[in-house]
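Lab meeting tomorrow. Please check the following:
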Amino acid sequence: MRSVVVTGAGSGIGLSTTELLIDAGWHVIAADRDASALARLGERLSNRHAITLAPLDVTDEAAVAQLADRCRTLNAPLAALVNSAGIAANARFADTTTDMLRKIYEVNVIGAFALSQALAPVLRENGGGSIVHIASVSGIKGNLGRSAYGASKGALITLTKIMAVELADDLIRVNAIAPGPIETPMVKENHTAVTREEWQRTVPLRRYGQPEEIASAIAFLVDGEQSSYVTGQILAVDGGFTAAGLMA
């Protein structure tokens, strides 16, 4: 059995990823800053033995270091990290404050950076592994109202490519998923009825994706056999949104 750390495991994409990877034979260290969400996760998966709950704020560097130390003592060696923790805001450029930008960067970029930096040595000691960042199509396209969020995800996409090059000698593969609109609590909080209509009109498949559809792509990227030659890639799981041009 192998171990994987999944951040943002209490809801949305992180929750679906946790469940799918457990079913695939992984031991999951489920990390989230929301203690109540972790408690619900523990109750939901109370009959599963391959899960460890880990309260974690990815912006707390001391807590990140403690998690890295903990990962060195696992019975099932750490082989992957999924950086799914993230926050968003729906605000146009003129209405985006610098405090808003800093807060989003602190979680979406610096949090993923710090945790990856802390766990990469553990992966190296275990013979390599996989890191998957959850980016967004908002880091690829100029989506309205996504100044802070899109900028953070664009930074994460570039970080993915640099990490892939620099960690290759350690046999650590680094990739990112760029989800389109996905039915998660964060999206439901930030997408108005008008926003939903606009997304469904511009996505060729004409619907929002489900967290399980992102989890399936993550499962492929963390699997060292199925995706052994894949690194430095940004996989858009977006219903065709980034491929679309003029649509009738």
